Amino acid sequence: MTKSRSRKLAFIHKWQRILRLGDWKITYEEKAWPHKTYSGRTRFDRNEMMAVVNIRKGMTAEYWRITVVHELMHLRIPFFFPKDSWAEQELERGVEMTARALLKLEAKR
């Protein structure tokens, strides 16, 4: 395992503890995908309590951290994606703002 991957896994596990997702098995993959709308996507199985956080390759370290916290929040907050595209956009915007705020608070500790 590379030093970079090890640091990233440590960051994910830190936020897994903060968000009380300790009983989940969470891994991550960095991928180059053509869909530029998303920075991250999470595949999960609630019954098995397993998740894979997919992060787009090539992001800055800061945006990588924001994306990871954002994706982990999707596991903590059990919401659905409404069919209304405006509602989905607002929901995603709210999760993004909350992820950024949590990271700022954690940095001040």
Which properties best describe this structure?
three-stranded mixed β-sheet; 109 residues; alpha+beta; single chain; Zincin-like
Q: Can you walk through the features of this model?
A:
51% of the residues lie in helices and 18% in strands. It has helices at 3-18, 61-76, 85-108, and strands at residues 25-31, 40-45, 50-56. The mean pLDDT is 86. The chain has a single domain, classed as Zincin-like (2-Layer Sandwich), CATH 3.30.2010. It is α+β, with helices and mostly antiparallel strands and 109 residues long.
State the distance separating the first and last CA atoms: 29 Å
Q: Looking at the chains present, what oligomeric state does this protein adopt?
A: single chain
Query: Kindly state the mean pLDDT as a whole number?
Result: 86
Number of domains: 1
How are strands sequenced across the largest beta sheet? 1-3-2
Structure summarized in a few sentences:
By secondary structure, this protein is of the alpha+beta class. 51% of the residues lie in helices and 18% in strands. The longest helix is centred in the last third of the chain and has 24 residues.
Layout of strands and helices, then pairs:
Layout: H1 3-18, E1 25-31, E2 40-45, E3 50-56, H2 61-76, H3 85-108
Parallel strand pairs: 1-3
Antiparallel strand pairs: 2-3
Helix pairs in contact: 1-2, 2-3
